[in-house]
Specification:
Blueprint: H1 16-25, E1 30-33, E2 36-40, E3 44-51, E4 63-73, H2 75-81, H3 86-92, E5 100-104, E6 107-117, H4 123-149, H5 164-174, E7 179-183, E8 186-192, E9 207-213, E10 224-230, H6 238-252, E11 264-267, E12 275-282, H7 291-315
Antiparallel strand pairs: 1-2, 2-3, 3-4, 4-6, 5-6, 7-8, 8-9, 9-10, 10-12, 11-12
Helix pairs in contact: 3-6, 5-7
């Protein structure tokens, strides 16, 4: 008699069984498929893929494992988005919540990634809730945002759970690392970049701008916190910016990248050709201790990482 191999519910010591149970309590049942934990909704199927770490920046610490969330849209949505241009893909990512629309094997997917370090002890209070929210809302955020923009769905309007006190607490922590301010309109930080070879001719500066904005509800997710990291590098035109966004969102899903990926690279929200990383933290995550502070710290690391990549690309 052949016995079906029991799935490993705690790969690398990570309690995926508990994650599955928590989502089951929220009405989303998970199943094991080829060693991955999968969750299926009407719109999509999200696979939770846990793998060993690849090469990382040792200065950030020792990586225990990498968790990737890869969401495959249902057949109807996949057909509707078939043949979609790269410009549309990066444009739709302006609606990103906790995951990015990217290409995988010529198909459109929505993905997030959590890199877990040995020294971290925040599974219950931060990492697991963040994974749950990403699994439940990443596809809804982008698809719902698209429907809202095209008049197919009424945009949500809800106040943010984040207050002036929250932003001041973030400022106190980040003031040790960068210049930053806080107030009723949110939190702003300037991240200095160490690159010495940024192009003055192209108008590059040496500071990335990060904002946490409470008064910008997501059209699908409602109230929360809009997170915007705007890079200083300029681009020749929208096509060059589009190619850069596509490449960065694909690279973010790699097991080699250290900073957690819960958002998307896209063109800026204003005029011009700004390169921006956008995330939206829904109100349901407000009580996760330090979540907005973590997003700010991750933004600083991400800014340095992206700047090095852009510098290397421009010098080649």
């Amino acid at each position: 008699m052949f016995w079906k191999k029991k799935p490993n519910e705690s790969p690398f010591g990570l309690p995926l069984g508990a994650l599955r149970q928590a989502l089951s309590s929220a009405g989303l049942e998970g199943t094991w498929k080829n060693g991955d934990l999968c969750f299926t909704t009407e719109q999509a199927t999200t696979s939770v893929i846990v793998s060993a770490p690849n090469q990382h920046d040792a200065s950030l610490g020792t990586v225990r494992a990498v968790i990737r969330l890869s969401t495959k849209l249902n057949e109807q949505l996949e057909t509707a988005l078939a043949g979609m241009s790269d410009e549309s893909v990066v444009g739709f990512n302006r609606f990103a919540g906790l995951g990015a629309m990217y290409r995988e094997d010529a198909a459109v997917r929505i993905g997030s990634r959590l890199t877990i370090f040995d020294q971290e002890d925040s599974w219950g209070q931060l990492q697991c809730p963040l994974l749950i929210a990403a699994i439940m809302s990443s596809a809804d955020a982008i698809i719902g945002g698209i429907k809202g923009a095209t008049g197919g769905e009424v945009a949500q309007s809800e106040s943010s759970a984040w207050t002036t006190d929250d932003f001041e607490a973030i400022r106190v922590t980040l003031a040790k690392l960068c210049f930053c301010t806080s107030g009723t309109d949110g939190f702003t930080a300037e991240f200095g970049l160490s690159n010495e070879n940024l192009s003055v001719v192209r108008g590059d500066k040496k500071t990335a701008l990060f904002k946490l904005i409470p008064n910008a509800p997501h059209p699908k997710l409602g109230g929360g916190l809009l997170c915007l990291l705007t890079m200083p590098q300029s681009f020749q035109d929208s096509d060059e910016l589009c190619r850069c966004c596509i490449q960065l969102n694909q690279m973010e899903m790699s097991t080699e990248v250290s900073v957690p990926h819960f958002g998307a690279w896209c063109p800026g929200f204003g005029q011009g050709t700004d390169l921006t990383y956008v995330s939206f933290i829904p109100n349901i995550l407000h009580d996760c201790k330090g979540i907005a502070t973590n997003f700010a710290v991750w933004a600083q690391v991400r800014a340095a990482w992206a700047s090095r990549l852009l510098e290397s690309k421009n010098s080649s």
